[in-house]
Write a structure and sequence with these properties.
It is an enzyme of class 3 (hydrolase). Keywords: Glycosidase, Hydrolase, Signal. Its EC number is 3.2.1.52. Residues 161-327, 335-476 form the Glycoside hydrolase family 20 catalytic domain. By secondary structure, this protein is an alpha/beta fold. The protein folds into 2 domains: 15-157, Chitobiase/beta-hexosaminidase domain 2-like (Chitobiase, domain 2, 2-Layer Sandwich), CATH 3.30.379.10; 163-478, Glycosidases (TIM Barrel, Alpha-Beta Barrel), CATH 3.20.20.80. 31% of the residues lie in helices and 18% in strands. It is built from 15 helices and 19 strands. An 8-stranded parallel β-barrel has the order 10-11-14-15-16-17-18-19, surrounded by 7 helices. Strands 1-9-6-7-5-3-4 form a 7-stranded mixed β-sheet, covered by helices on one side. A two-stranded antiparallel sheet has the order 2-8. Helix 2 (57-71) links the parallel strand 3 (49-52) and strand 4. Helix 2 (57-71) runs parallel beside helix 3, helix 4 packs parallel to helix 6 and helix 8 (296-312) runs parallel beside helix 9 (330-346). The longest helix is centred in the C-terminal third of the chain and has 18 residues, at 482-499. It is globular. The protein binds ligand TNX.
Length: 512
């Protein structure tokens, strides 16, 4: 087996090697890739069938949905495989132990493609790989000519970290359900399995809460720059959760507190210590708002909100914010979270929060999210020593809202400029002092939206850095190789073009 990170052969690119190279261009790079030495390929035709067993049916339908627009083929999904092959087979069952719950094994030969995994999440990951084994035109939403070939060979693959996340800030600027769905489709391509939604901040409250209706009618009515804002009704949010779940992505909803709460404070005067509601806020300063720590109503508010949010959320986690509470004293901050943490845990969810919430010493089941810019943090080191798992999103590496360089028209730069090599060039398993790989649950790439208003903006900041962070989260460190990555990244560009995904043409990459 050649390591997935191997660069394409330097020898003359005969037909055979061109096919081979597609197999070693996958992002995130698989654990092991073995192109078939005898060459050969599978060719998708109008007669190809997607064969699934019962538990694989939904992934089969998803795959058919991905392949139908560009091929124009019928691609029936079901149980009966034609005897003459020409089948993409998705099967749940026994696989090698190392493949685990999220991995898969893929074999392709002249007769078809055979994808196996222990779970549908593993099959889904394998389907994302299969997409990249097909020509870039497969990503087109309009019919293309083909030929639709998959190089013959074998891939065995499984993730380095189980929690691979992207965050979207829908508070600073509101993004419609369709815009969020479009980002979900894009992150799914790179085997991201969590979407953290930052649902409330100073500038806007974006999720319907029946017991506190002004949160959305008033608190959701604007955004940075004074635009109309918006919010998700509970039905819209359930639909988003279901859409994400079909793509094996779990939504992690965040309500930020006790800071970043101006939208709530503006919606309910009684939440303010002085009983006076501040005006809505449309600027981009941080750290000026706080819930009133000594008022009982604060905790009724938090409990109501988290209860409704937990009812809405089938996923494992609730995110309770906790960052940049500059308007809350340390003792107040601790007092606040010592009351809020049991409320959140009492709802049957695991609690995640920005790493400052470690000041209140949450239980070891809590998941602190590190967002600092240094490679040492005492709170996080001590939590890891106590047994907490850590989610890593160092701002100077993974913040997709940071500018690429001084000329980037969008984004901020407080954590520095982040070019592609910077986003790719760190090891999550050996990054934070006192946080060994075994203490790392995963990696997240947050996208704050002070400067972002459209899907085009989201894509410009996320591509190509999101695939870089996704590879750090999925691929074994032994495959880490900048030269290989930049070659493979270049090969993604035609796919993004076919799919209509905007991206930043980093000068570090030799784009085709
Ligand atoms: C810091 S990082 C924030 C956000 C801002 C972001 C902008 C963190 C936990 N809080 O409130 O949107 O910087 O980059």
């Amino acid at each position: 087996a050649v390591g997935g990170a191997g660069a394409p052969s330097a020898a003359a690119p005969d037909h055979h090697q061109v096919k081979e190279s597609r197999m070693i261009q996958v992002i995130p790079t698989p654990v092991s890739v073995t192109p078939d030495r005898d060459g050969g390929e599978f060719r998708l035709t109008p007669a190809t069938v997607i064969e699934t067993d019962r538990g694989a049916r939904q992934v089969g339908e998803y795959l058919a949905g991905v392949l139908r627009p560009a091929t124009g083929y019928r691609l029936p999904v079901g149980g009966d495989s034609p005897r003459d092959g020409n089948t993409i087979s998705l099967k749940l069952g026994r696989v090698a132990d190392e493949i685990g719950d999220q991995g898969y094994e893929l074999r392709a030969d002249r007769r078809g493609v055979d994808l196996r995994a222990r779970t549908s999440a593993g099959l889904f990951a394998g389907v994302q790989t299969l997409r990249q084994l097909l020509p870039a035109e497969i990503e087109s939403r309009e019919q293309r000519r083909g030929p639709w070939t998959v190089p013959a060979g074998r891939i065995v693959d499984h993730p380095r970290f189980e929690y691979r996340s992207a965050m979207l800030d829908v508070s600073r600027h509101f993004f419609s359900p369709d815009e969020v769905k479009s980002y979900i489709d894009q992150i799914a391509l790179y085997k991201i399995n969590r979407l953290h939604l930052h649902l409330a901040d100073d500038q806007g409250w974006r999720i319907q809460i029946d017991s506190w209706p002004n949160l959305t009618t008033h608190g959701g009515s604007t955004e940075v720059g004074g635009g109309p804002g918006g919010f998700y009704t509970k039905d819209e949010f359930r639909d988003l959760i279901a859409y994400a779940a079909q793509r094996h992505i779990e939504i992690v909803p965040e309500i930020d507190m006790p800071g970043h709460t101006n939208a709530a404070l503006s919606s309910y005067a009684e939440l303010n210590c002085d009983g006076v509601a501040p005006p809505l806020y449309t600027g981009i300063e941080v750290g000026f708002s706080s819930l009133c720590i000594d008022k009982e109503i604060t905790y009724r508010f938090v409990e109501d909100v988290l209860t409704e949010l937990a009812e809405l959320t089938p996923g494992e986690y609730l995110h309770i914010g906790g960052d940049e509470a500059h308007a809350t004293s340390d003792p107040d901050y601790i007092k606040f979270f010592q009351r809020v943490l049991p409320i959140a845990e009492g709802l049957g969810k695991k609690v995640t929060g920005w790493h400052e919430f470690l000041k209140a010493t949450p239980s070891t089941s809590a998941l602190p999210q590190y967002w600092g810019t240094t490679d040492a943090n005492e709170l996080v080191r001590d939590a890891a020593a106590r047994g907490n798992k850590i989610l890593l999103s160092p701002a100077n590496k993974t913040y997709l809202d940071m500018k690429y360089d001084e000329n980037t028209p969008l984004g901020l730069s407080w954590a520095g400029y982040i070019e592609v090599d910077e986003a790719y060039g760190w090891n999550p398993g050996d990054y934070l002092d006192g946080v060994p790989e075994s203490a790392v649950l995963g990696v997240e790439a947050p996208l704050w939206a002070e400067t972002l208003e459209t899907s085009d903006h989201i894509e410009f900041m996320a591509f190509p850095r999101l695939p870089a962070v996704a590879e750090l989260a999925w691929s074994p460190w032994s495959t880490h190789d900048w030269e290989s990555f930049r070659t493979r990244l270049a090969a993604q560009a035609p796919r993004w073009e076919q799919a209509g995904i905007n991206f930043y043409r980093s000068p570090q990459i030799d784009w085709p």
